[in-house]
């Protein structure tokens, strides 16, 4: 695993600890020799994760749609900034460039990125680890919801277990390194549904 995509907020939020954790993630990736692939923004947690990597010798690639480049104030000083035409193309490019993804605290956009990437894994479109870094218990309610989905039979256990969840970035990176994608099943039988 050489490159990791990080999905996170363009907002600062009300708790400075989210920014502190985002910076620490960027720093950890740099220290471990991972290239950071992220959304290219220069504000909020996006800026923090990029700065954490850049200020500690890491390589950083941003991927941002043209229409957001000004709104999110694209980060300066990146090794590469890739401009794309849409949000969907942004996710596709980030997935293409990375060997796995980590989701940090964020809002609707961050969750949409997380769920689309994990769904692609469920469908066999990639076999990369998808992870939640549950800093400060931010994702406790989401984790409980996914457990509920599983107990209600609407999310198979093996797909539930595809999601790597840790509170510590270094433990999460270790789990990502040893990740084994589950055996996928064929939902539709030949000759019928």
Briefly characterize the structure:
With 193 residues, the protein is an alpha/beta fold. Helix 1 packs parallel to helix 2 (44-54). The chain has helices at residues 16-31, 44-54, 66-71, 87-97, 108-122, 140-151, 157-160, 169-177, and strands at residues 3-7, 35-38, 60-65, 80-84, 101-103, 130-133, 163-166.
- What structural class should be given to the helix and strand makeup? alpha/beta
What about the largest sheet? 7 strands, parallel
| CATH architecture field | 3-Layer(aba) Sandwich
The number of distinct β-strands equals: 7
Overall mean pLDDT score?
93
Principal-axes shape call: globular
Structure description:
The chain is an alpha/beta fold. The chain has one domain (3-177): Rossmann fold, CATH 3.40.50. Helix content is 44%, strand content 16%. It has helices spanning 16-31, 44-54, 66-71, 87-97, 108-122, 140-151, 157-160, 169-177; strands spanning 3-7, 35-38, 60-65, 80-84, 101-103, 130-133, 163-166. Strands 4-3-2-1-5-6-7 form a 7-stranded parallel β-sheet, sandwiched between helices. The longest helix has 16 residues, at 16-31. The radius of gyration is 17 Å and the shape is globular. The N and C termini lie far apart (37 Å).
């Amino acid at each position: 695993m050489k490159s990791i995509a990080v999905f996170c907020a363009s907002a600062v939020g009300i708790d400075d600890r989210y920014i502190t954790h985002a910076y620490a993630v960027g720093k950890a990736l740099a220290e471990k020799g991972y290239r950071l692939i992220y959304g290219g923004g220069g504000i909020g947690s996006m800026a923090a994760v990029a700065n954490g990597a850049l200020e500690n010798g890491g390589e950083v690639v941003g991927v941002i749609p043209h229409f957001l480049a000004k709104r999110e104030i694209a980060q300066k000083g990146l090794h590469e900034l890739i401009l794309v035409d849409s949000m969907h193309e942004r996710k596709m490019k980030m997935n293409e460039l990375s060997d796995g993804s980590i989701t940090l605290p964020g809002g609707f956009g961050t969750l949409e990125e997380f769920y689309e990437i994990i769904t692609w894994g469920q469908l066999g479109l990639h076999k990369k680890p998808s992870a939640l870094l549950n800093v400060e218990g931010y994702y406790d309610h989401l984790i409980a919801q996914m457990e509920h989905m599983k107990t209600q039979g609407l999310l198979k256990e093996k797909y539930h277990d595809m999601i790597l969840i840790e509170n510590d970035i270094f433990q999460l990176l270790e789990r990502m390194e040893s990740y084994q994608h589950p055996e996928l099943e064929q939902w539709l039988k030949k000759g019928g549904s």
